Here is the input.
Amino acid sequence: MNIFHIKKILKSRWRRWRRAIWTVGACTLVAIMAWLGLLLSDQMERLMEKEPLAVETFGKLQAVIPVAAEEWLNDLEKTNQTRIVHLNKIYTCGTESEVLGIMRPDEIAKLMKSHPEWEGRLGSGGDVWIDERINGLSDICRTRGYIGIDSKGNLTLFDGPPKKEKVIRTFFQLDVEMMESALPADVLKQLREGIRVQDVEEYNSVLSTFSDFAIEQSEKVMQQNDH
Here is the structure.
């Protein structure tokens, strides 16, 4: 069975109790929003009366934030010491690292200014570490990534099929008993053998599907049913 059709099975199995939870939740939300609306109205009125102070405070915050963000660069320039610079490419699935080389403080500052979306820091060993976040799959995930279940019942990303036990990342613990009662046997077999992920859409779809069986999510549902 295709993993993209599992949601339909879950909806047909859980429609009754979800409808009850949504009804109670909606009524509660409306009541809370009405109460908050009255509070916010009073607070906004008081804030409008103190507008000059609010604007002044906001201006100070704007001035402080950039300084904090560049603090490590300022410390770097004071030393005037060359550093080994590492670049971590943090993908939606997977991470790749490379050494950009040995750079002077001014070269590092120029590099960071040319890539404002990057996040940098000075490591305890003196090296510079830079993080670049990328919406996509790393080479390992794209060519050898499998999502499956480990021996402890955790949803896990593996380098190769789960039987090789090469763990890349562990997501969350699954309620195996609930899965066995809600999902067809061939879907469970597919999970144990490993579900191949080759693009971001499939990766996110698999995580979203099985997040319904996370232990924390299951406990929340049981608590709501008890009430």
